[in-house]
Amino acid sequence: MAAVGLGAAAVAAAAAAGLGWALFEAQWVELVERDVGIRGLPRELDGFRILHISDFHLGTFSLNGRTLGKAVAWAADRDLDLVAITGDLVSRERGERTLRESLGRLRARHGIYAVLGNHDVAATRDPFSRAAELAGLRGEGAQLLEHASVTFDVGGRTVQVAGGDPRRFREPHGTLSDREADLRILLVHFPDPVGSLAPGDFHLVLAGHLHGGQICVPTPRGKVRLEHLRAPYWEGLFELPSGSLHVSRGVGTSFVPFRFLARPEATILTLGARQ
Fold it and tell me: What DSSP assignment string belongs to 261-273?
């Protein structure tokens, strides 16, 4: 009986340690700087810097606000041309205040642009999710793109930033492309729309949603990712026939406040020309 008691205590201690680590990892934001080669990028846009952040999931019982604060504090001191936010901004309405405060601390020469995620429109398995009222983000210096785009001039070159709507993610997103723009960037929450893009629609696609699996189990064949069991593009940078795709692991957590082998991240992408 004593041996059984010791075994149970050891299992309980190991479980507590694992949960403690997973709670710590959920706040251990990885701050990444990555170069991205863009075919045919004009000289005037060489070195264009984009902060890509995603999946805040603010308002839940979690430390997501603290993690976002670390990412914002790091980015606030950087020289940025653009901030791109790819959805799941809030999971509860009470997260809107933290969202607006965080956006108010970010600066970029050519603006802050965001798209909604499935949690923002309450298209989720979370029974407590409610659609957020985020149309007024411009007051915090951000612009929400709902299946729409903006263009602006950089050194005599035209940059287009388009944003998809998660409620229309199965629709072809190539229709948003302005082929006359010298640099075309698409923001989406789900990575799926890259499958419908033709070469030349967009130079760069930014997405989130998958959290890198959020909780991963190591196996001899690699990670088993529990947040989403299947995905063609889990995390990181991919060179596809349709252009470059960057999938962020995101900042926050959903459903449970833990991460394991899937640290939160904020990434600065520096664009450069490639052949």
Answer: S---EEEEEEEEE
Hey, what are 260's tokens? 């394991």
Beta strand pairing call for 222-225 and 216-219: antiparallel
52-97 pLDDT, tens digit per residue, is 999 999 998 899 999 999 999 999 989 999 999 999 999 888 899 9
Two tokens, residue 206: 């930014």
Give the distance, in angstroms, between the CA of residue 216 and the centroid of all CA atoms in the same chain.
18
How far apart are the C-alpha atoms of 80 and 101, rounded to whole Å? 19
Contact 173, 205 (CB under 8 A): no
249: nearest Cα among 49, 31, 46: 31
* Pairing assessment for the beta strands 82-86 and 112-115 based on DSSP bridges: parallel
> DSSP assignment, residue 79?
-
Strands annotated E in 66-165: 82-86, 112-115, 142-144, 148-154, 157-163
Q: How far apart are CA 48 and CA 214, in angstroms?
A: 30
Check if the beta carbon of residue 136 is closer than 8 Å to that of residue 159: no
Q: Which residues span the domain enclosing 51?
A: 2-274
| Domain harbouring 262, CATH code | 3.60.21.10
Question: Quick one: pLDDT band at residue 104, thresholds 50, 70, 90?
Answer: very high
| Cα dihedral: 100, 106, 108, 111 (round 10) | -10
CA–CA gap between residue 79 and residue 146 (Å, rounded): 27
Domain count along the chain: 1
Q: How far apart are CA 228 and CA 39, in angstroms?
A: 32
- Within 13 A of 147's CA, how many CA atoms are on the CB side? 12
- Global pTM? 0.92
The span from the CA of 245 to the CA of 202, in Å, is 10
